[in-house]
Structures are given as C-alpha cells and as structure tokens.
TrEMBL record:
<dbReference type="GO" id="GO:0008616">
    <property type="term" value="P:tRNA queuosine(34) biosynthetic process"/>
</dbReference>
<comment type="function">
    <text>Catalyzes the ATP-dependent conversion of 7-carboxy-7-deazaguanine (CDG) to 7-cyano-7-deazaguanine (preQ(0)).</text>
</comment>
<keyword id="KW-0862">Zinc</keyword>
<feature type="binding site">
    <location>
        <begin position="8"/>
        <end position="18"/>
    </location>
    <ligand>
        <name>ATP</name>
    </ligand>
</feature>
<dbReference type="Pfam" id="PF06508">
    <property type="entry name" value="QueC"/>
</dbReference>
<dbReference type="GO" id="GO:0008270">
    <property type="term" value="F:zinc ion binding"/>
</dbReference>
<keyword id="KW-0671">Queuosine biosynthesis</keyword>
<feature type="binding site">
    <location>
        <position position="204"/>
    </location>
    <ligand>
        <name>Zn(2+)</name>
    </ligand>
</feature>
<feature type="binding site">
    <location>
        <position position="191"/>
    </location>
    <ligand>
        <name>Zn(2+)</name>
    </ligand>
</feature>
<protein>
    <recommendedName>
        <fullName>7-cyano-7-deazaguanine synthase</fullName>
        <ecNumber>6.3.4.20</ecNumber>
    </recommendedName>
</protein>
<dbReference type="GO" id="GO:0016879">
    <property type="term" value="F:ligase activity, forming carbon-nitrogen bonds"/>
</dbReference>
<dbReference type="InterPro" id="IPR018317">
    <property type="entry name" value="QueC"/>
</dbReference>
<dbReference type="InterPro" id="IPR014729">
    <property type="entry name" value="Rossmann-like_a/b/a_fold"/>
</dbReference>
<feature type="binding site">
    <location>
        <position position="207"/>
    </location>
    <ligand>
        <name>Zn(2+)</name>
    </ligand>
</feature>
<dbReference type="GO" id="GO:0005524">
    <property type="term" value="F:ATP binding"/>
</dbReference>
<comment type="similarity">
    <text>Belongs to the QueC family.</text>
</comment>
<keyword id="KW-0067">ATP-binding</keyword>
Amino acid sequence: MKNAVALVSGGMDSAVVLALARESGYAVHALSVRYGQRHTSELDAADRVARTLGAASHKTVDVDLRSIGGSALTDDIEVPVHAGDAPEEAGIPVTYVPARNTIMLSLALGWAEVLGAADIFCGVNAVDYSGYPDCRPAFVEAFERLANLATKAGVEGAGIRVHAPLMRMGKDEIVREGLRLGVDFGQTVSCYRADAQGRACGRCDACRLRAAGFAAAGVADPTRYA
C-alpha cells in the first residue's frame, strides 16, 4: 500500500476524506494540529476518527497560532452566533484563522516527505463553507505547485499531489458519502464553541452548516448538543 498523509481535524469533512483515502488503497497517516484553538475536544474526536477508520498512524503537532491571534478561534474575540434568520456576517468571517491551511498543509508536506508519501489529503470545501480564502480550488492548486518546487520529492522524486476530494461537494453530499463509507458522524466535532465533552452549541456557522447538511440529506443528525 502507498503511504499518504491526511489532515484530520476531528470534524465531519476530514473524517470522510480519511475514509475516502483508505478506500482508494492508501495507508493513511493522520495528522492533526493543536494550534491554540478555543477547545481541544475536536482533537479528541480526531483521535477517535483516526482509530475507528483505520489510520496507519496518527500524530498531533503543536503550533502556537494563538501567539499571533487575529481570529475568533485563537484570540479573545467572540465567535459569532446566529438566531433564526439573522443575516450572515459580511465578508470573510472572524473565525478565519490567518494562514491556518497553509501551515497545516506545510506540516503534512514535511511528514509526507519523511514517509516517502506522494499524496496529501485535506478536507477543504468551496461549496458549503464560510468563505475562507484558503478553502478554494485556486489555493489547493497553488499549494501543490509550491510543494513540487520546494521539496526534494518534487524535484528529484515522483512529485507531490494534494487531494481535496470534497472540494465541490455540498454538505448533504458529504453526509451521504460518509454514510456509504461507514463514517460514524457521532464521533466527530465541528462546532467552533464546543464544550470539553465535544457538545455543540448549535448556533455558530459550523453548527448551522453541519445541521443543514444532515437535514438536506434526510438523515438524522447525530450531533450532541449542549
């Protein structure tokens, strides 16, 4: 089996990506990042997901993005919540973490080189997402070009491929694909304001997108709410 590295956050999207990579025949090495996020229950979820879905290994790397702040997820800024049909936040929301996906993919790239892996999987999505600039196809394509310019594997080896299989899927499609692959969504945590037990707030943007996905798929929502 060929090695691959998959970014696993503990959320529903990355769980489906891990399952897809396994289905494609890869020995998947799961990588999570403790970056100073508001809660670590998502990292507990990442560990559960990696074990349940058969990752070859799982490691968590520490990067202190709280030291630079600039996001409601890493700074003393309130996470926006919405009641009923309240209008969404205009522009890129304050939950955007500056350079997060660039940093995480860079860590995955480094580990991929060490493992001799030519494939990196991530769960970025440009359909049902919060408008983050580092979730777009252009970003993934640009990072893949960078990876092949900046690494020994890119210059002397087989090259690096960055896979974002959920890029153009709606949340309902992601739910259906996960169920087909046997993903237990009850093990995942998506909420920006989850408590220590991983229970969701039900009101942040991540919760709203997740709940809408299960509703559109016609599937019971297994999320545990506070």
